[in-house]
Design goal:
This protein has 194 residues and is mainly beta. It is built from one helix and eight strands; from the N terminus they run H-E-E-E-E-E-E-E-E.
């Protein structure tokens, strides 16, 4: 009985999206980010670690100003320095994410295109492994993001975005772990804007 209710709910959501045209602005995205992570744990003080990531995402518009995005991130974090006689080990892996982003138009001209400003909330599930080992671990991550993007007048199906994320890694082995950085991404809207 419970499975039947879930099936009906899934079919209803698909029908609602399909009939209201939400798939009209489906977008594929590719991005690259540089990050700085600060972590502390196990009785040791905080240290900074540099890192980077590449992301692939798929975005679905929910409204003219709101989108739901799902993504795959491939990331790496370098080891910390040895100052103080200890090191936080480097690691790398992948993460699946779900994000909700809102965007408003700041300026628009027929010659240059549309400049937008926005922000978002995201949640990820990461599975990295420590460098030079076969030890893998899991942690959830939550984040906020601010961005500015350009949709050129001559190429309305493309969007170029500069983003600054702030994320918290919810790791059991550390007292805290936060990261920030900056990144560029490009999005291609399959059917253009409505």
């Amino acid at each position: 009985m419970l499975g039947s209710s879930r099936s009906r709910l899934a079919v209803s959501i698909i029908f609602l999206i399909w009939t209201t045209g939400c798939l009209h602005g489906l977008a594929l995205g590719l991005g690259a980010f540089g990050t700085v992570q600060m972590a502390a744990g196990q009785g040791f003080g905080p240290k900074l670690q540099l890192g980077g990531s590449v992301s692939f995402d798929l975005s679905f518009p929910l409204a003219a100003w709101l989108e739901l995005s799902t993504g795959l991130d491939i990331f790496g974090v370098l080891p910390s320095d040895t100052q103080g006689g200890f090191v936080y080990r480097g690691f790398g892996g992948g993460a699946l994410s779900l994000a909700l982003r809102g965007r408003g138009v700041v300026a628009s001209t027929a010659r240059l295109g549309e400049l937008g400003l926005g922000g978002g909330l995201d949640a990820s599930a990461a599975v990295p492994g420590y460098q030079y080992t076969t030890l893998y671990f899991f942690y959830p991550e939550v984040g906020l993001e601010g961005f500015i993007d350009l949709r050129p007048a001559g190429a309305p199906q493309w969007s170029f975005r500069l983003a600054v994320p702030l994320r918290a890694q919810l790791r059991r082995d550390l007292d805290y772990s936060f990261s920030t950085g900056a990144g560029l991404s490009v999005h291609y809207y399959l059917k253009g804007k409505k």
